[in-house]
Amino acid sequence: MASEDMPRPSASSGGGWLGKADTWAGVATIVLALAVIYVSFEYGLGRGGRIGPGYVPLVIGLLLLGLGVLLVARAGRSVDLLDTDIAWRQVGLVTVGIVAFALLLDRAGMIVAILATVLIAAPAAYGNTLVSTLISGVALAAFSWCLFVYFLKISIPVWWF
Asked: Distance from the CA of 106 to the CA of which of 27, 97, 133, 161 falls in 20 to 30 A?
């Protein structure tokens, strides 16, 4: 029997809080928030009339901490069980796309690297057609050129020649 044909167990039969997706999303968010808060203390917070560079990361960290706590609290009422199936094909396509970008950026240029990455990773999402993939690739390449080369004046090889 294929895994798609097997019925999913109800949330009440799953391993309590530890079997809920919201619990683990909340724990991961809390860990990230604590890391952001810790790093923000290495910068000066400033004073009342003049905030320092650590103020914004501290506020973002506190907001993330609150979100993480809300996610963990929501897990008690959630019925979504943790899905442990890994889509290996999609993970592989995206990973190969990223590696292709890294290998092609210096050799073929930014435009070719972006187009290759989009073409390689596009089958990872359902419903992509060749036309929509090409439109996405061209739009992303044009946006990247405008942002990094034209506006920010970053020296990135655009073409192989």
From this structure: 133
Residue 87 contacts residue 138 (beta carbons within 8 Å): no
CA–centroid distance for 65 within its chain: 18
Q: Which residues are paired to 50 by β-bridges?
A: 47
CA distance to 20, 70, 130, per residue, from 78 (Å): 7, 12, 38
* Distance from C-alpha of 66 to C-alpha of 58, rounded to nearest angstrom: 12
For residue 24, give both structure tokens. Answer: 């683990």
- Cα–Cα distances in Å, from 107 out to 119, 128, 157, 160? 18, 28, 8, 6
Spatial distance between the Cα atoms of 34 and 60, rounded to a whole number of angstroms: 11
Q: How does pLDDT run across 144-155, given as a tens digit for each residue?
A: 999 988 888 888
Q: Give dist(CA 137, CA 122) in Å, integer.
A: 10
Cα 37 from Cα 107, distance rounded (Å) = 40
> pTM above the 0.85 mark?
no
